[in-house]
Amino acid sequence: MGYSSTWNCTMLWGCIVYLPVFFISELSFLFLMLVSFISPQGLDL
């Protein structure tokens, strides 16, 4: 019983940590794609 609850807690924390990281990485990737699409010379800083 204790092992199951510990596993569920680990899965919960994994989702809590993984989802924001995945969302932020996807958002930053889309932002870079949008910037490079709008102004290709803007990346040459």
Describe the protein.
Keywords: Membrane, Transmembrane, Transmembrane helix. The chain crosses the membrane at residues 12-38. The chain is mainly alpha-helical and 45 residues long. It is built from 1 helix and no strands. It has one helix at residues 2-38. The radius of gyration is 19 Å and the shape is rod-shaped. The termini are far apart. The relative contact order is 0.08.
Quick description:
The chain has 45 residues and is mostly helical.
Can you summarize the main beta sheet? none
Q: What is the share of helical residues?
A: over 70%
Q: What's the end-to-end separation, in Å? A: 57 Å
Binned strand content: under 5%
Alpha-beta classification: mainly alpha
- Estimate nothing, just give the exact number of structural domains: 1
Mean pLDDT rating: 81
N-to-C series of helices and strands = H
The beta-strand count equals: 0
Identify low-pLDDT runs.
Answer: none
Rg, rounded, reads 19 Å
Q: What is the approximate shape? A: rod-shaped
